[in-house]
Amino acid sequence: MSKKLYVGNLPFSVTEQSLFDTFSQYGEVGSAKLVMDHQTGRSKGFGFIEMLDAEEADLAVSKLNGSQLDGRNLTVNEARPQPERSRSHGMQYGDSQGRGRRY
């Protein structure tokens, strides 16, 4: 069974391919995704790895959490489920500030 991992404190020089390669040393990687800032196009310094085997994922966490990559200590742990977001993004019917009628 696959397991999704959170990887934080990444150096800005890291690419999805280098992240994939780093984790591939510990098992089969299904995907590697860096989270990017939409305005600057630059990495936000964290990403997610999907490892296809849960035991290999646990090994990667134990080996890579706290290890250095380009001078930065990585934070690696199991990713928490993403919270569900409402389609209205918190606004009620009415103006863009969320003021208006509540039905």
What is the class in the CATH system?
A: Alpha Beta
Number of helices in the DSSP assignment: 2
Detail the poorly predicted runs.
none
Number of domains: 1
CATH architecture: 2-Layer Sandwich
Overall pLDDT confidence: 89
Instruction: Look at the helices and sheets and give the structural class.
Output: alpha+beta
Helix percent band: 10-25%
Q: State the CATH superfamily name.
A: RRM (RNA recognition motif) domain
Tell me the β content.
25-35%
Shape: globular
**H/E order of the elements?**
EHEEHEEE
- The total beta strand count reads 6
According to CATH, what is the topology? Alpha-Beta Plaits
| Largest beta sheet: strand ordering | 2-3-1-6
First-to-last CA distance: 44 Å
User: What's the Cα radius of gyration?
Assistant: 18 Å
Describe the protein's architecture and organization:
By secondary structure, the protein is α+β, with helices and mostly antiparallel strands. It has a single domain (3-78), classed as Alpha-Beta Plaits, CATH 3.30.70. It has helices at 16-24, 54-64; strands at 3-8, 29-36, 43-51, 68-69, 72-73, 75-78. The strands form two sheets. A four-stranded antiparallel sheet has the order 2-3-1-6, covered by helices on one side. A two-stranded antiparallel sheet has the order 4-5. Strand 2 (29-36) and strand 3 (43-51) form a beta hairpin. It is globular. The N and C termini lie far apart (44 Å).
